[in-house]
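If you are new to this repository, start here. Below is one unmodified record pulled from the training split, so you can see the exact layout before writing a loader.
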Amino acid sequence: MPAILCHMVNGVSVQNYQIEKDIIHIGRSVDNDIFLNEQSVSGKHAVIEKVIIGDTFEYRIRDLESTNHTYVNNLKIDKKWLENSDLIRIGFTVLKFVTDDSVDFTKTIRIKKSWIPGIFYTSD
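And here is the target side for that same chain:
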């Protein structure tokens, strides 16, 4: 299975990005491979680089001197080799790095109706 970035909200994968190119650009500018429309994200925030080492692919994330930095597992990084299930935070967005079938893509968020007309929520 190729590597995937899963956009996580409340522990649920809401969107997946397959890492197929050698360099994936992440940021708020629309010309990025992964466009994050959030004001806490820099225009060119970070890149993920796919590197061949031996007969396997390894993946490295690199911060592009962004305003709010890039975090992996809640640690600020300049660059870091990624491992399966690492949590990447870019601004307020959390992306889970997945290299195997461990993520549950079938989990569905239960939506509940509020007593306020037209208002719905996902947790108690």
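Two things worth knowing about this chain: The longest strand covers residues 46-53. The chain is about 0% helix and 50% strand.
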